[in-house]
Amino acid sequence: MRWDPSRYAAFADDRGRPFHDLVAQVAWSADTREAPRRVVDLGCGPGALTATLAARWRSSRVVGIDSSAEMLASAGADPALADLPNLSFELGAIEDWTPGPTDDVVVTNAALQWVPSHVALLPRWLDAMPSGSWFAMQVPGNFGSPSHALMRSIGASGPWAPALDGVLRSDPVLDPAGYLGIMLDAGFVARAWETTYAQLLPGEDPVLDWVRGTGLRPALAALDAADPSGALTAEYVDRYRAALREAYQASAHGTVYPFRRVFAVGRKP
Ligand SMILES: C[S@@+](CC[C@H](N)C(=O)[O-])C[C@H]1O[C@@H](n2cnc3c(N)ncnc32)[C@H](O)[C@@H]1O
């Protein structure tokens, strides 16, 4: 399933805010080392946010890992990232990653919801991380919101239903307490929380535009595969667009798209 970096970047400001709120909680302590030896960003996407880590810790090696060649090509073509000699990117699957002995900070923002096995992988990662290291994660927690519930309910009936059967998951992430428990069980000093961002979006169909860049992609890919003419995709999107306009009504200021996100941050003593 391909990613479209330019479509993803359309709401860069709103998509970036949780990342900054997340990494602000990583209080790297200089007690033992001057800087993290290596910083890893799992599911780094187009790399602009990873670059902020490289700017924060200039003497650390900062590595963004992502399985999308399109996202990494976008990172490679971004001139703003070329000025950071400590920043690099690797093509790879999160499922195949294991922490190295110098991975002092691991960040993963809006990526683990795409990795069904992440709940099983977390304890192994945390166990392997070096003492003094930090693990910081954020996942969207909005799979029950109208945008996603409508995506699924409309997808479940209509000519597109067979193509969408089993494609859209309703529960890919845990609540904050679930991630907190995993971190505490691994011996981390941790905290977890959730925030709902009241995102004010411009444009005629901004919620549709938002999910087209992320959560709707599996459905669009399945529909395009089932009917390469695009007619089935267009029919489904028309129905979904109409329902979104009802659920998220525009005001003179724009359209408010409330977006819940789940955070967990911990440090290994
Ligand atoms: C919503 S984007 C988030 C990108 C970036 N972290 C940010 O906050 O803007 C999700 C990213 O996770 C990547 N991704 C999804 N599943 C992955 C996997 N199994 N292994 C590696 N990367 C994955 C996608 O390619 C995409 O770039």
UniProtKB/TrEMBL annotation:
Residues covered by the Methyltransferase domain: 39-122
Domain of life, source organism: Bacteria
GO MF entries: methyltransferase activity
UniProt entry keywords in alphabetical sequence: Methyltransferase, Transferase
GO biological process: methylation
Protein name: Methyltransferase domain-containing protein
Presence of the UniProt keyword Cell membrane in the record: no
